[in-house]
Amino acid sequence: GMESRASLRASWMMGKRITNEIIAKCFAMFDADGSGTLSHTELAAMVTGLRLKLPEREVVDIAHELDVGGSGELSFEEFVVLFSKHLNSTAHNMRQMFDALDLNSDCLVRVEEFERVIKAAGIEISDDEIRRMFALADTDRSGSMSFSEFRGAYKTFSWDKVEGFAIRLEELKTCWDLLDSDRDGTLQIAEVKTLFQELNLPEDSITNLRPMFDAADERGHHGALGIPYSSFVNVYQSEAWLDSRVLGTTKLNLQRFRDGQAVMYANQQKLEKEESGIGMVRVELLMERRKLRNHPHVSAAIESFWHLLGSQLLDGKWVTEGLYLTYHSKIFEYLEPLTFDRDEALEIASGDWDRDRELEVEFWADVGEGSAIEPPPEGLGCIGYPGFFESIFELIDMRLGFEKGVIEAVAYAEMVLEIQHALIGFEPAGAGMLSCSWATDDNVYCDRSKWTCNSAMVIIPPNTPWGFSTAKLTERLPPPKPAKKVPTSTLHKKQFAKCNDLATKQAMVKTLTADEKVKMFRAMPAAGQVELLSVLDTADKVAIFGMVLSLIHI
User: Fold this and answer.
1) Mean pLDDT score across all residues of the chain
2) pLDDT tens per residue, range 325-341
3) Is the pLDDT score of 300 beyond 90?
4) 387 in Cβ contact with 356 (< 8 Å)
5) Does the pLDDT at position 455 exceed 70?
6) CB-neighbour burial class of residue 471 (10 A; exposed 0-12, middle 13-18, buried 19+)
7) Which pLDDT value is given to residue 484?
8) Are strands 382-383 and 444-446 parallel, antiparallel or unpaired?
9) Which ranges of 146-220 would DSSP assign to H, the alpha helix?
10) What is the DSSP string of 227-281?
11) CB under 8 Å to 37, separation ≥6 — which residues?
């Protein structure tokens, strides 16, 4: 059967850079009530306890992003994804790595420090390989490496053999910075104890502090002076320091996850500004729209769409390029019947396919061999359910959230159901089955080079969200609606700009109400406004001029 998005994302991470032990330990640490899930409140307490100063909106956004099921709580599978984003810049990684290697903080790294930190970070590499890497960076043969030498050699290092090297060192440094709260360059039992108590860690973690510090100061050199960074490096991977390692790793991944969200929203703001030609969309609105991805109604609607496509899926699990282009072009035709152009629609869909395929390839490259997740068939370009889900949600979000300003889960779900009802014809066939086919174009199927006929039976799983049985699915679908003759004002602007025929533009404008014409005018750039005025009658021009004058008086 189809795996949930949460289990797919969790399987992706298991056995990767972060061990199961670290993630499980972290989850248990912050599951304050022992319920087996993390509430959004417990996640917020984690952020505060780890001394991350994030605005409340960002903490809420992280919670909604992780909460794939929309339950208000994070399962372990959902929590795992927190450890999946590695989006720090190259420059930031280089500085972090160099600082972690520089044990005595003299702005130089010697080969002994280089070897010591790499091995302390738990990276398996031979002594010969370490020496070769160091020699490549030490261009002046001084026996030490400056930051400029390190930076120059960074991209030429054979560090692709050292998986996660930069990330491991960043984890080590983040852990140190979290524990050394007074920034005096040493760790005292009292400051670590204060941190553990603020996080409400169990009593055995606090009583373990003395053995922790004894392990770091096994020769008794430091005593009341505290543990310096160089000694901390030696014990970082030891069992005695596991709790501290968990906290540092979790803090780093929370920071990284937040940074990934910020980059995503910045890119979306830029894209939507280019699309609309107006100002930048507020991040708060983007967050509100994005959290609808995980609303149960929206998830259920998209999943029902997937099931109805079941007979068209390769092995019942994979969307091929031909199928992707087919349902995308049919969706465009349904949404924009006045200006639909099949070649243009296929060109847009093809670009979207290339992007989604690239993401899918990256996903499977990260999963690697030996994963429990079944990979797509070799030699065939496909996307799985997560890619399908994201592409459908993005389309709905652009139509409703972006173009109409409608941010309601029910509206998003209804639009998905409306589209699938317009695209797919089906009728009950008994025994929990539906007979499905394309509802238009004589059931044709686009594969770029050929058109073939497809119609088959689909089984609707009894445990599909919303409790879809054949009867209930039929009840949930709204009655067929006539093709929309008038899209939204934002869409009018785009269609008007694309059209080159004056008569068509005049016909398009005549279908609009006076209010819609005014809204369309306001949404257009100056050149478009002049063109619109050329096809309006006198009464419409008066209404628009009145609107302009009212704005001037304001």
Assistant:
1) 77
2) 889 988 998 898 888 88
3) no
4) yes
5) no
6) exposed
7) 40
8) unpaired
9) 147-153, 165-179, 189-198, 203-207, 209-216
10) EEHHHHHHHTTSGGGHHHHHHHHHHHHHHHHHHHHHHHHHHHHHHHHHHHSS-PP
11) 31, 71, 73, 74, 75, 76
Looking at residue 313, its amino acid is: L
Q: Do 399 and 490 form a contact (C-beta atoms < 8 A)?
A: no
The answer to whether 326 and 442 are in contact (CB under 8 A) is no
The residue to which tokens 């039976």 are assigned: 457
How far apart CA 447 and CA 381 sit, in angstroms, is: 13
- What span, in angstroms and rounded, lies between the C-alpha atoms of 545 and 538? 10
Separation of alpha carbons 422 and 415, rounded Å: 10
Residues 6+ apart with CB under 8 A from 4: 68, 69, 77
User: What backbone phi and psi angles, to 5 degrees, belong to 189?
Assistant: -55, -40
DSSP state of 399: I
Of the chain, the percentage scoring pLDDT greater than 70 comes to 73
For residues 462-486, average pLDDT: 41
CA distance 425 to 240: 62
pLDDT over 50 at 420, yes or no: yes
Please report, in angstroms and rounded to a whole number, the separation of the first and last CA atoms in the chain.
Answer: 60
Residue 48 has pLDDT above 80, yes or no: yes
User: Where residue 38 falls among pLDDT bands split at 50, 70, 90?
Assistant: very high
Dmax (CA) of the chain: 93
The neighbouring-strand residues paired with 314 are: 318
CA distance 85 to 87: 6
Strands 382-383 and 319-320: antiparallel
How far apart CA 18 and CA 16 sit, in angstroms, is 6
Mean pLDDT calculated for residue range 224-248: 87
Pull the structure tokens for residue 303: 């999943």
Cross-strand pairs, 39:
73
Residue 552 corresponds to which tokens in the numbers above?
């001037």
CA distances from 237 to 82, 95, 233, 312 (A): 21, 22, 8, 50
d(CA 388, CA 317): 11
What pTM, to 2 d.p., does this model score?
Answer: 0.67
